[in-house]
Structure formats: structure tokens, C-alpha cells
Design goal:
Number of helices of chain A: 7
CATH architecture of the largest domain in chain A: Sandwich
Strand content of chain B: under 5%
Pfam family, one (chain B): Sigma70_r4_2
Shape of chain B: elongated
Number of strands of chain A: 21
Keywords (chain B): DNA-binding, Sigma factor, Transcription, Transcription regulation
Order of helices and strands of chain A: HHHEEHEEEEEEEEEEEEEEHEHEEHEE
Protein name (chain B): RNA polymerase sigma factor
Protein name (chain A): DUF4880 domain-containing protein
Order of helices and strands of chain B: HHHHHHHHHH
Family (chain B): Belongs to the sigma-70 factor family. ECF subfamily.
Low-confidence stretches of chain A: 63-112
Number of domains of chain B: 2
Mean pLDDT of chain B: 76
Largest sheet of chain B: none
Oligomer: heterodimer
């Protein structure tokens, strides 16, 4: 073993010790920060350990079958049975029984099948769920579902719209972060933000519960929002209603929002993001309807309307005032 | 987990998921396991020196680029210059425009492997890790259940974590190769023909 490799092992050992002792609460956070900031290698190896540590926990709800997700055609409606593009998943539950089985090496896993569907950045697709529910996935989205006595749906990331009709879909339960919503037949949109889910009822009704003891009954044209101070039900603005329809057609609507906020929205769809080369132009307010799969129309409008030009940098498209 | 900063999360999601590609690429540049390993670790450490990491549009391509530059730098500094390696360094330019590998699919494979690794842990380690991470019991509860002190539990967890991290890192390096420029094939042909 080379000197470098030996040093690497020592850092790995220290990183694992720090992580475990931070987890159990016996580490001194100040001493830890001192260790981490003393060498970028410490920071890097610690982050690698933390990624592994987190991944172990993911097994709590996740899969054992190996079935890669293939690319799927945009807007293709896929059948509910697992196939290319949808993957079969078997989840292990965090029950003592399965843990005991793992611990004894008996290899006994409780299988509870969960299906998932994902979209890449800029991709959209429609997936048929069991019981006659339709899920539309917006860009960079992952959902999972399971059909037991009722249909359960999880939003893992991104944004999705659901149309529920037919007996099989009645009483479906939708989970998004800490929110749980029991859905009647209807039409719903849910998007996961960093601060929590935003859940809109376009048609139908939903019995919602969420972290902090929040419960409410949402009806058509109401939206549940999450903020740092908790959950709140509001009337659904017509602009937001229009937006939920627009993204399903591959469009984005700006209704007088600031350019900086508009870019945040547009960049959800772009592998190569658009950024402000000049912060001063971020406050410009703009309106309009654009295709999310092609930012050139948007860039042209910025140029025509505001004299804002664009150029490519290595990592992004930069906007600047001409 | 308040000790995780945004850069740690970013690193895990955007960089570390592609570690197999980084290792495979470093190995092709250096043709030496230990050196490849060190190259990757040096590249990762460099990411943690950045203040503007959030602005990197394609962290995977960026990491490959650092690995390449670091390899070139080392090659230049080397006491004994291997000529054929200079050729491979030129040929194995990372491709910046390559489509991103499917992060979700990689993560899923990763998870399946992780389930396998758990079974390979020594029994007490495995019990500690499973109770803490999968059963989600508090450290104190785990220690009580296993009838050990918290500091002994820490030793089991730390050892388990280190083994899992090691296996996880070592595996998958042979799964997929990094896409490289067209000239590589040419380069191989030349080497075969003894045209160094």
C-alpha cells in the first residue's frame, strides 16, 4: 500500500469516527469543524462517508430489485404494468422482524412492491397508475406508487399533476414530504419546494394532514402552501391554475414576475441554465408565454423587449444589458 | 443532520454518485490503482476548496476535467517521464458535452449493492448499523437493545460505516467506462502497432 493510500485510510477512519460520534451526540462540534476545515481532504472524505451513511438509511423504504430506468418518450402514456421506463421495486420495511432476519443473515426481506417513474431535466411524461389514475410528471420529477387496499402515491421530487377517476382511484393517498392527502376523484397538482410541498386542488377534494398537527379539508380551487412558519390553505389564484395547465402542455407563463424569479422557473427545464450576467436587470418584470423545451424564443423576446442580450459561458447562458 | 452543509449534499448528489466513472477515468489515465485512487481523492478535495461550487453546471464533467488536469500536472512533475502515458493523457480528454449518466438508475443500483454489503458485515456491526439506520432507533435505544455502552456502539457503527464505504467505493469501478474522445481508438491502434 502506498503512502497516499495509507494516509487516505487514516482520514477515512477519522471521518467515520466523527460522523458516528456526531450521530450519537458525543462529538464536540467545534473540534469537528476544526478537523473538517483544516484540510479539504478531510471535508471531502467526510462528505463521502456521509453520503454512504445516508444511503444505508435509504434502504429503510427502498428497493432490492435491480432494474434500470430506461429513457421514455415524451408524453408517452405508459401502461400500469411494469415495463421499460417503470421499474419494479421491492421495499423492505423497517420492522424488527426484517432487521432480525438481516442480522441473522437469513436473507428474509419483506417485499412490498413499489413502482416508480422519473423524468430527467426538461422531460415530461404521463404515466397511468393502477385504478384509473393518470399522473403527469413535470421536469426532474420522481414519483412512486403502490397499490394495496388503496392507491398510495409518493412525490419524491419535482412536480406532478394527478387526475383521478373511477372507483379504483377513490381514497388514494398522496404523500409529499410531511404532507398526507386523501384524495377524492378530481384533479390535483403538487410540487415539492425546498421549504415543503405546494398542493393545489383544481377539482375534487382532499383531506390533508401535515407536520405540526395541521389538518384541513381542501376543496376545488384551493391550495396548500408550506412555509417556515407552517402550512396554510389559500384560494388558488387564476394565474397558478393557468400555470398547472401550462406546464402539462410544455409551456411556461410569466405573469409580471421579476426576471430573476422567472429564470429560476425556466431553469427547472434547462440542462444549461440561464443566469444573470448583470444583477441589475434581475428586477425587470416580464410577462408572456414560452415553450419550456426551447429557451431561444424566450431569449429573443428578452432581446426584443428589453434589449437584454445573451452569451454562452462554459456553464450557462449569461444575460446582460446591451 | 446539521453537520451536513449544502456543499456536502451537492457533493453526494452531483459528484459522488458518479464515483465509478471518476475512478475508471483516473485508472485509464494512470494505469495504476493506487495512483488513480489518489487522483480522484485529490480532485474531490479540490472541489471542497471551491467557494462557487453551486455555479458549476455539470459537476460530473467538471470533476473529470480536474482529474485530467491533475494527471497532466503530475505527469509533468514526474521524475521519470513515461512517453506512452503522455499520449494517453492527450487522447483521454474528458468530453464536456457528454450527456449526464442517469443519476436515478445509478442510485438504485447503488442501493441494491448496499443491501448486499450489509449482509457481509460482521454480525454485531450489522446489527448496530441496521438498528440505527434502518430501524431508526436512537443511539441510546440501540445500545440498550444490544446491551452495550454507547461508546462501544460507536466503535461498531464506525467500523461498519468504514467497511460499507470501502466496499461501496471499490465496487462498480468496472461497470461503465467514461466516454472519451474519438482519438482513443486511434491511439490504441498506434500502440498496438508499436508506434509510440
Amino acid at each position: 500500500m502506498s503512502q497516499d493510500a495509507k494516509a487516505g485510510d487514516e482520514i477515512a477512519e477519522a471521518a467515520a469516527d466523527w460522523l458516528v460520534r456526531l450521530d450519537t451526540g458525543s462529538a464536540d462540534p467545534v473540534a469537528f469543524e476544526a478537523w473538517r476545515s483544516s484540510d479539504p481532504r478531510h471535508a471531502s472524505v467526510f462528505a463521502q462517508m456521509a453520503a454512504t451513511w445516508k444511503r444505508i438509511g435509504d434502504l429503510r423504504w427502498a428497493s432490492t430489485d435491480d432494474d434500470a430506468v430506461g429513457p421514455s418518450a415524451m408524453e408517452a402514456i405508459e401502461p400500469e404494468l411494469p415495463r421499460r421506463g417503470i421499474d419494479r421495486r421491492a421495499a423492505i420495511t423497517g420492522l424488527a422482524a426484517s432487521i432480525a432476519a438481516i442480522a441473522t443473515g437469513a436473507g428474509f426481506w419483506m417485499h412490498m412492491r413499489r413502482e416508480t417513474a422519473t423524468t430527467a431535466i426538461g422531460e415530461r411524461r404521463v404515466v397511468r397508475l393502477p385504478g384509473g389514475a393518470l399522473a403527469s410528471l413535470n421536469t426532474a420529477t420522481e414519483i412512486a406508487w403502490r397499490m394495496g387496499e388503496t392507491l398510495e402515491i409518493w412525490i419524491e421530487s419535482g412536480e406532478a399533476a394527478f387526475r383521478l377517476a373511477g372507483k379504483g382511484a377513490v381514497g388514494a393517498v398522496l404523500y409529499a414530504a410531511t404532507m398526507r392527502a386523501e384524495l377524492a376523484g378530481g384533479s390535483y397538482n403538487v410540487r415539492l419546494f425546498e421549504q415543503g410541498p405546494r398542493f393545489a386542488v383544481m377539482a375534487g377534494s382532499a383531506a390533508v394532514s401535515a407536520a405540526g398537527g395541521f389538518t384541513d379539508m381542501l376543496h376545488a380551487n384551493e391550495v396548500l402552501t408550506a412555509s417556515a412558519s407552517g402550512f396554510l390553505t389559500l384560494p388558488l389564484a387564476s394565474e397558478e391554475l393557468a400555470q398547472t395547465g401550462a406546464w402539462q402542455r410544455g409551456e411556461i407563463i410569466f405573469d409580471g414576475m421579476e426576471l430573476s424569479a422567472a429564470l429560476d422557473e425556466f431553469n427547472r427545464y434547462l440542462a444549461e441554465p440561464i443566469r444573470l450576467g448583470d444583477p441589475a436587470i434581475g428586477a425587470i418584470r416580464l410577462g408572456g408565454r414560452f415553450r419550456t423545451d426551447d429557451p431561444s424564443g424566450f431569449l429573443q423576446s428578452l432581446y426584443d423587449g428589453f434589449g437584454i442580450a445573451s452569451r454562452r459561458s462554459d456553464t450557462a447562458i449569461l444575460l446582460y444589458q446591451k | 443532520m446539521s453537520w451536513l452543509r449544502p456543499i456536502d449534499q451537492w457533493f453526494a448528489d452531483q459528484v459522488f454518485v458518479y464515483r465509478a466513472k471518476h475512478r475508471a477515468y483516473a485508472l485509464r489515465l494512470t494505469r495504476d490503482g493506487d495512483e488513480a485512487e489518489d487522483l480522484v481523492q485529490e480532485a474531490y478535495a479540490r472541489l471542497f476548496r471551491l467557494s462557487n461550487w453551486a455555479e458549476i453546471a455539470n459537476p460530473n464533467a467538471f470533476t473529470l476535467r480536474i482529474i485530467h488536469n491533475e494527471a497532466v500536472e503530475r505527469f509533468r512533475k514526474a521524475q521519470v517521464v513515461q512517453l506512452d502515458r503522455s499520449l494517453s493523457l492527450q487522447a483521454l480528454e474528458p468530453v464536456d458535452e457528454q450527456p449526464l449518466p442517469d443519476r436515478v438508475a445509478i442510485a438504485r443500483q447503488d442501493l441494491n449493492r448496499m443491501a448486499g454489503y450489509l449482509e457481509r458485515l460482521p454480525p454485531r456491526c450489522r446489527e448496530a448499523v441496521c438498528l440505527r439506520k434502518i430501524d431508526n432507533l436512537s443511539p441510546r435505544e440501540v445500545a440498550a437493545k444490544m446491551d452495550i455502552s454507547v461508546s462501544t456502539l460507536e466503535k461498531h457503527l464506525s467500523k461498519g460505516l468504514r467497511l460499507l464505504a470501502k466496499w461501496r467505493y471499490a465496487d462498480g469501478s468496472d461497470t461503465e467506462e467514461t466516454r472519451v474522445t474519438e482519438s482513443v481508438g486511434e491511439c490504441r491502434k498506434m500502440r498496438k502497432q508499436g508506434m509510440k
